[in-house]
User: Fold this.
Amino acid sequence: MAGANVWKRCSSCKKEIHFASTYYVCSVSTCTKKRTGFAFCSVECWETHLPLMRHREAWAVEETAPTAREWAEQQASEGGAPVGGEDKPDKPATAAPQRRRVVGTKAYDTPAGAPVEVLVIASRLKHYIREVHGLNTSDAVMDVLSEHLRQLANRAAEAAKEAERKTVLDRDLDFLAGAMASLR
Assistant:
C-alpha cells in the first residue's frame, strides 16, 4: 500500500481507504466473498460496479474499516496472507493437477467483424423458465444460448446457399429436429 495508514484501495476509483474509516460494500454475496473483496470509498463508486455485475437487487452497505492493529492480527491469524487481496493459498507440491471443464467446441467460427451480441430477449426467456419450471436463470445463459443460435444460423444459411436460395427458410433448420430426436 502507498501509505502506512491505508487499509485498501477503492475497487472503482482506486482512492485510498484508510484504517478505521467508513467504506461501502455490495449487499450481494458474490461481491462480499474474500476472493473478490470489493470495497468502495463512496456510494457513487459502488454504483459504477452495478452495470458490470448486473445485479437484480443490490444496495450499498456502510462498513467501518479495521484499525491497523485489528488488520495486522487478522493477517497473522490467516497465516500471513499478503496485504492487497492476494489471498491465494499455496498448493502442496503433490496436489493432483486441477481438471478443467471445456464446454463444447464451435462448429463454426464467427466471422471477423460479425456482431457478437445477445440474440435473445433475456426477460422473456427468464420468465418462461420461471413460469414453466419454477427456476431462476443466470445472465450467463444468454451468451451461451446466443452462441448456439449463431451456430444454427450459420448452418441454416449454408443450407439455403446449397439450395441456391437467398432466403433462409424454416426447413433449413429441419436438421435440428433429427438431432434433437437422437438426444432423447
About this structure: The two ends are 58 Å apart (CA to CA). Confidence is low (pLDDT under 50) at residues 82-91, 99-107.
